[in-house]
Amino acid sequence: MKHTKVVFTAFSICIVLSLLICIVLLTQVKSVHKYSHMVDTGRQIVQLVVEMQLEEQTYLLRHHEEVLGNVGERIDRLRKLHTSYENIGLVQEATGALEFAAWEESMNLYERLFDQFVLYHQAVEKSIAEIRELEKTILAVIYSKMNPERGIIGLQEIRIHEKGYLLYRHYPKPPDERSFEDKRKEAVANLLVWAHEDKRIEELMERDDRLFNEILHNYESQESTLVALQGESQRMKDIGDKFVEEGDKRLKMIDRRCLFLSHSLLVIWGIMGIAVLSTVFRL
Predict the structure, then answer these.
(1) Residue 135, domain member (yes or no)
(2) Cβ atoms 222, 208 nearer than 8 A
(3) Residue 94 above 50 pLDDT?
(4) What is the pLDDT of residues 240-280, one digit of tens each?
(5) Which of 16, 200, 222, 272 is at 20 to 30 A from 82, Cα to Cα?
């Protein structure tokens, strides 16, 4: 009777411990979906950002309007990921809330920067088109003067230096060589000398200079915006990488805990089995 009571007590203790372990195991297993979603979200963020960077390069090279829609579509997908990440409850954690806020800020800033980037490019294209139209008027005035050939050559020289700037502005300037902007200024001065203080050409060239300076300003603004845009892209990629890293770390931790609890459960019932067998044989 005494042995039976001991076995019953030990069995009860094993049942209680097993229930507690199973509850902890169930809690850990339920967390697997949450952190798997975190890893998947991080990978999708990185993939979408890489696709947006490719669209940026495509727009720089070809200026296709469909790129704008493609970037907007990917930002919308990022926003949906952002919402799903919030709904799953990960933002309740300290690190999750911090990255969630940074993600939202970076996404909104990227969208505004990309809009500015496009606007600067459109402004450059508009100024170039206006210069081309203005050139027709300048040529008409040049043809109305005596010896127009020198004036035409002077105007062509101005355009050559402008195109040099547009094509080679990203290349390093050879040492001891003047910039295309300085060469253009000299070409404008030579044209005005040929014009012999013709007010018509002076006024037209003032407008031409103003348009070219607008191009310079817009290109500089576009390039600085592109640097900021690339910075936000990298920031979002870093956030995605952190999600993957944090999710993987939590999943590995859950795996170790579940393995430990499972082994503990086996050990408890193994000890219980040995104790029961020992008691039976004694009887």
Answers:
(1) yes
(2) no
(3) no
(4) 888 888 888 888 888 888 777 777 777 777 777 776 666 66
(5) 222
